[in-house]
């Protein structure tokens, strides 16, 4: 959401939020280079300062954006992308709540500042949580929400006169309120015998560290002033003819022509069209199949869009290429169908989380994670508990890893967080999320929230409205939210397409008693299914495990206990997947950082991999299971074979 001027925030201070509904304008196409578009990444070292003043408002009072940051006080070097929390040696910065300031001076190519037919756009991939942006001291954008991109057209600013450099200042506030997503509260501790004056803490109801900063790439890109603003693609099948429906939005001129071509992986044009919307037909289409479901999974076509426009400065062309996977998604009472075939989610829940960089995007980490997923035989993950970087979804498209795309609706626990103010913000977040992720074939379902207090009275209206809105924005995908509410008390469940349930039997209760898991899990499934004849996913289960701790017979926190617990779950899942259970997602792919608490030993240890991505015993167990499940379908044989070289266990 883009907002008005920054003044109000300076007055309200760091710890208050308001969430008015702004109408979402414009597209959010991933910035790709093309014959008409350039991009300049601004990753690297930025100048940085946290505003430690009592009211956290000194930066606004002294207008730090007006002049280079170094002129208003000392600065630190801060890497982008990265969370600011873990790169330093200062414990106060690690847990800082309030405004931090980032600044980068850049030199623009001369053409960008002189060519009035060029549009220069500043794009921020993710700034957690609230961000205000200035260019050369001029306010250009504000955005609420830490996991989705926002942009500002800065052409006028950079083309207004001779310019030697361009200064970008971004103030970011990680304060959460009952109406933010995720929600949080600021608690002032006022007992003078225990706390110094003004002492406060930020309370959250979710179990991951509230990392903050510029978490994803900041970049500049260009388009012509008449440009392709948005493309929406949906796909279908008619016998063996693939149908690609497209809709294109152009900005900058009403007099234009659009030509589209669909290219196969060999670069051959397989269909052509013209105009702002239409349907392309692809005879004998290669479908986009999930990993291990077909010998050639994740087939991607390229939709090449060419815009030609007449403008005051003459004819202009813009080019944009979008990867397209042709696939269908549907559900029955007992199945989740991809391309008409039953699909079983055998996968993980993840986090964007790693040592030092926190939630900062990192290519080596990403590639490692995808290699591990494929080694594991996982075909799916949930973006618990917020939308991940666009590059993550691009890799899912390329590798056939199916995604349940989750909004940052985690920790919605109080009645206040179900209020209309919160709901309006959540509606907007879904708009932003769908606008960004709608064209990814890998995304097969939207998840609106994780473990909300969906037994509270306002939850019924909240989820009914939110789900209807999401379906109106995207009628092509099922919608869910992930629950841990009792099946009889859940007021949101009637509106979801797939029931996703988290449970921690023999972990958060019946400690150490793995013998009760099978009974409790079977009862859980049966109870839900009795009321709602809908497909179900075990969306979380797991046990904290310290890598290298061994106890036999198994004790909690040992590798043996994690394995044993998983095996108990699997025994029931193996029965129920023959009925209506359509997936299992382990909690969690890797250990991750949390707030400090006596319940967490340097973070959450439920990973089957450590935070450094080394396997615990459970990873081998799950690997054996997932490859065995894959072996049960007949579509994947050659993929399984190629993965099995040198591994007799999985030879088919
Ligand atoms: C859950 C939450 C997840 C936690 C997990 C745990 O139910 O959805 O965010 O990390 O339990 O380990 O407690």
Under CATH, the topology of the largest domain can be stated as: TIM Barrel
Under the CATH scheme, which class of the largest domain? Answer: Alpha Beta
Report the bound ligands by name, code or SMILES: (2S,3S,4S,5R)-3,4,5-trihydroxy-6-oxo-oxane-2-carboxylic acid
Number of domains: 3
Secondary-structure-derived class: alpha+beta
Major sheet: size, sense and barrel closure? 8 strands, parallel, barrel
Distance between the terminal alpha carbons, to the nearest Å?
A: 51 Å
Report low-confidence residues grouped into runs of 5 or more: 1-23, 644-652
Average pLDDT, rounded to a whole number, is 93
Named at the architecture level, the CATH assignment of the largest domain is Alpha-Beta Barrel
CATH superfamily of the largest domain: Glycosidases
Total beta strand runs: 32
Spatial order of the strands forming the largest sheet: 25-26-27-28-29-30-31-32
Percent of sequence in beta strands: 25-35%
What value does the Rg take, in angstroms? 25 Å
Shape: globular
Helix content bin: 10-25%
Q: How many DSSP helices? A: 13
